[in-house]
């Protein structure tokens, strides 16, 4: 019987046929987790037999994110015992639970994974590692209230690795994403994944394809961490852009989305996670550089190694300037007031273009737009992040239409309402995706050339 593979994939499908089909597609690096609480009407032994014994059997209580009633513990244990008749490779049994005799008697053909889900705010991993229950593998799950909470797992996980323990310790929630992806870096032996064709089993659980794309199983303690800081960032194209470039350059770096909306929390996380390279997005492009004593707005930070002074650049400005050089000169109508709006205005004025800036807090009038007769329109608001978002300031767009020749969109989602409008009226359009590619390429070069690894 083998030890656990690196990826454990929870079968969360609405019906067993879909779950079984998914399990059969998994490679040797992934083991299906059979959650009996998700298939309460099925015969446990038959489920295990269908998986040809290659599975981890779990029956999760409702208080721990599962569906089995907390007040039916006897029924839950009975269900686990029934599954043992199929001789699964692994069985999940709660950390603090004494091993029932029926399960102890099956230890000749099943290995035990001892698991614990602790309450939010509890970080007792070190104490629990000093008092381990009987088992072959161990799982500790907490909750990330702040991004820097992930760093609290690093020291005990290194201790576990150095002592030969087969451990996975991670935090749930969107801010716990680094702990799930960096198990191999910090000393963990396995991590949990959502099926690619099914929903996550817990908040923050990543799809198997994502973890494989990031090569989570092949990361090692020498890998340094880069990422995109801001809120929201879970949709970011940054990981798909930067990680292949790091891999091609044989650079021991990995790039993750790091959700965080406040500069104070970002500073804490930068130290707790030993971050080396950062893309900064809203709302941190001004506040985070200022907290570091740097002149903003900036969208890129890097340092050679932990402890070095942070350096910064604005690759948004570089990409915008390049795009602007190919567009007709003349006055510009600028929407927005955040970091990219400030960057846009500075670059426009540096080329001698007149700018009329409009935002919710500083509105412009139709008469002002008509008097300006803008040649270009720059969309630098957050509208377009959501599919239902409308185009900004439709009355001002209508007033700008007679003189406009081009439009530029900062949001890099396809077919925003603004981009659709620009195409419909026949304007030359610089899409947000093109700006993203240009600024991200400049970021990748800096990360690869100027960020070291972890010694």
UniProtKB/TrEMBL annotation:
Domain of life: Bacteria
GO MF annotation list: 3-dehydroquinate dehydratase activity; shikimate 3-dehydrogenase (NADP+) activity
Keyword Amino-acid biosynthesis appears in the UniProt entry: yes
Keyword annotations of the record: Amino-acid biosynthesis, Aromatic amino acid biosynthesis, Oxidoreductase
Domain Shikimate dehydrogenase substrate binding N-terminal residues, every copy: 228-288
Name of this chain's protein: Type I 3-dehydroquinate dehydratase
Pathway(s) served: Metabolic intermediate biosynthesis; chorismate biosynthesis; chorismate from D-erythrose 4-phosphate and phosphoenolpyruvate: step 4/7
Organism field: Candidatus Geothrix skivensis
PANTHER family membership: BIFUNCTIONAL 3-DEHYDROQUINATE DEHYDRATASE_SHIKIMATE DEHYDROGENASE, CHLOROPLASTIC, SHIKIMATE DEHYDROGENASE
Gene Ontology terms: biological process: aromatic amino acid family biosynthetic process; chorismate biosynthetic process; shikimate metabolic process
């Amino acid at each position: 019987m083998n030890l656990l593979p690196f990826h454990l994939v929870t079968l969360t499908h609405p019906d067993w046929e879909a779950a079984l089909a998914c399990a059969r597609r998994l490679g040797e690096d992934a083991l299906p987790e059979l959650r009996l609480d998700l298939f309460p009407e099925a015969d446990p032994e038959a489920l295990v037999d269908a998986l040809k014994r290659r599975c981890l059997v779990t029956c999760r209580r409702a208080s721990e994110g599962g569906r089995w009633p907390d007040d039916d513990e006897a029924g839950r244990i009975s269900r686990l015992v029934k599954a043992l008749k199929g001789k699964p490779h692994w069985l999940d049994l709660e950390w603090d639970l004494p091993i029932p005799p029926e399960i102890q008697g099956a230890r000749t053909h099943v290995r035990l994974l001892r698991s614990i889900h602790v309450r939010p705010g509890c970080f007792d991993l070190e104490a629990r590692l000093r008092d381990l229950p009987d088992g072959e593998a161990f799982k500790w799950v907490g909750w990330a209230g702040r991004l820097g909470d992930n760093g609290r797992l690093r020291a005990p996980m290194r201790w576990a690795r150095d002592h030969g323990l087969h451990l996975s310790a991670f935090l749930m929630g969107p801010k716990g994403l680094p702990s799930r992806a960096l198990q191999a870096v910090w000393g963990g032996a396995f991590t949990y994944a959502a099926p690619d064709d099914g929903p996550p089993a817990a908040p923050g659980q990543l799809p198997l394809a994502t973890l494989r794309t990031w090569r989570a199983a092949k990361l090692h303690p020498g890998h340094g961490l880069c990422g995109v800081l801001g809120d929201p960032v879970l949709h970011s194209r940054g990981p798909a852009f930067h990680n292949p470039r790091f891999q091609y350059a044989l650079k021991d770096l990995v790039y993750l989305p790091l959700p965080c909306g406040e500069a104070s929390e970002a500073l804490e996380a930068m130290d707790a996670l030993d971050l080396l390279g950062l893309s900064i997005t809203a709302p941190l492009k001004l506040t985070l550089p200022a907290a570091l004593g740097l002149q903003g707005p900036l969208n890129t930070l890097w340092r050679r190694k932990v402890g070095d002074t942070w350096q910064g650049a604005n690759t948004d400005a570089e990409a915008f300037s390049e795009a602007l050089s190919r567009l007709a000169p003349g006055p510009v109508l600028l929407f927005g007031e955040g970091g990219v709006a400030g960057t846009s205005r500075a670059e426009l004025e540096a080329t001698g273009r007149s700018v009329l800036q409009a935002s919710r807090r500083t509105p412009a009038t139709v008469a002002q737009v008509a008097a300006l007769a803008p040649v270009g329109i720059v969309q630098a608001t957050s509208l377009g992040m959501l599919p239902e978002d409308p185009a900004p300031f439709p009355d001002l767009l209508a007033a700008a239409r007679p003189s406009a020749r081009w439009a530029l969109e900062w949001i890099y989602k396809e077919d925003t309402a603004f981009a659709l409008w620009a195409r419909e009226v026949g304007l030359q359009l610089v899409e947000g995706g093109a700006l993203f590619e240009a600024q991200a390429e400049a970021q990748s070069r800096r990360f690869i050339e100027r960020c070291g690894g972890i010694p």
